[in-house]
Amino acid sequence: MTTALTRRHSESIALVALFAALLGVMGLIPKIDLPLGVHISIQTLGVMLAGCLLGPWRGLQAMLVFLVAVAAGLPLLSGGRGGLGVFMAPTTGYLVGWTAAAFVTGWLMALLPKSTPLRAAGSAFVASAVGCIAVLYAFGIAGLVWIAKLPLTQALWVNVAFIPGDLIKCALTALVVHSIARAMPDWQFGGVRR
Length: 194
What we know:
This protein is mainly alpha-helical.
């Protein structure tokens, strides 16, 4: 019994570290800068994948490990950024929101149907859209209003530019989940068995 518990604990630590590292690797892909100090990066795909594949708590833990590494000065964000200064930029709300987005995505993934690979993919799309578009945008908008001092309507309009790219990331997440569901039927999407 103790060996199985230790094995599960070790697997959880490895998965959390793996997804934190994956987010860092995604930071190597160049960002697309937009006006007002915000940009588009592939790293939100990592947030979506962490929530769908790890579940709410391990997804949140992976985001926390990553953000602590960034705060410690590691240049893991797109464009080679890192350090405490990134938490005072207009994108602060999005960075902080990664934790909530991964949690909500994982929580929804645990609740939605996953009995077949196609259902798991559909659930991943919905969970990613709610967690990493609705929830993440709410944090991002709050950051733009608070730090960049944008009016609320302008902050809302800034986020409209992100929607097409984020929907593509939701579709990519669904494709990855579908592939994993077909190859590994026992995978616990959202921390729950299919």
